[in-house]
Amino acid sequence: MQKSYRLLVVGLMLTLIFSACGPADASEIGGALKGNISISGAFALYPLVTRWAEEFQRINPGVSFNISTGGAGKGMQDVLASKVEIGMISREISAVEESQGVFQLPVARDAVFALINVENPVLNELLAQGLTQETLTKIFITGQITTWGEAVRNPAISDEIHVYTRSDICGAAVTWSAFLGGEQEDLLGDGKFGDPGIMQALQRDPLGIGYNNLIYAYGLGDVAPQGTTILPLDLNANREADLEEILDTRAKAANAVASGLYPAPPSRELYLVTNGKPEGIVQDFLRWVLTDGQAFVERSGYIRLTDEQLGIFLEKNW
């Protein structure tokens, strides 16, 4: 594993939540905000939120951040239990959560991508054909396809498929299972904690298949981390990976998501949530995220929301 990617993995194992540790001091001193903000929640937003925290603190040195991760499920649980003021989730809130007073703000877009090992026994066929939604459903949910030969219609290949899924409650698994017509608990496979857990498993296993959020699927660069590659989705089921279905670079993936060529799901919006309408320093930070903070979305490897989408939430009375 490359040194830079190991550093990313270490950072990603911390937990994402925005909350005030005790009552936040939202007073201004010399025009700068003062207070402490803690963050916990989805792995999907961790790299972007840490960048936002750094930039916000640069212009408000009186503000400190505590950032950790634990999955979108933990972020929501912490918000509902009033352990934190802001949680990060990678799915839209449910009607039940809305009825409990959860306030959500969409802040960026990303997507979930299927990955395989570059030493897969049928790598050339997979890259040339891709896999259809139906085939992936039979691999991840029903278990009807268990060998790589079956996946590419080559009965001479008997190597079994090793499926990896998320062990934590997370938006990535919810989004991927929704694309395949199920729910997270329907996903088969060996459970791994977080995006880094799945990536590490795939790097070690030539027979593996898994899924990761955009920022982890492509690592720190423009291509998948060493030892892995993005599996094309044969969306039109023509048994051929068309040019627009080959997302072998981050730039291609981002363009496909932004233009709608990559479907939703597995593309989706990412959210910051609070228990009730945000106030004080938390409100100041969230408003900055939706305005000046948007300049760092694409630089951090994510896809910006439209100005219209951002404007809808900026105009809300909060």
How much helical structure, as a percent, in the residues? 25-40%
The coarse overall form would be elongated
Q: How much beta, percentage-wise? A: 15-25%
Low-confidence stretches: 1-31
Domains counted in the coordinates: how many?
2
CATH topology title of the largest domain: D-Maltodextrin-Binding Protein, domain 2
Structural overview:
There is one protein chain. This protein has 13 helices and eleven strands. The N terminus is likely disordered. Strands 1, 2, 3, 4, 5, 6, 7, 8, 9, 10 and 11 form an eleven-stranded mixed β-sheet that branches. It has two domains: 155 residues, D-Maltodextrin-Binding Protein, domain 2; 149 residues, Periplasmic binding protein-like II (D-Maltodextrin-Binding Protein, domain 2). Helix content is 35%, strand content 21%.
Descriptors:
eleven-stranded mixed beta sheet; 318 residues; 2 domains; alpha/beta; 35% helix; D-Maltodextrin-Binding Protein, domain 2; 13 helices; disordered N terminus
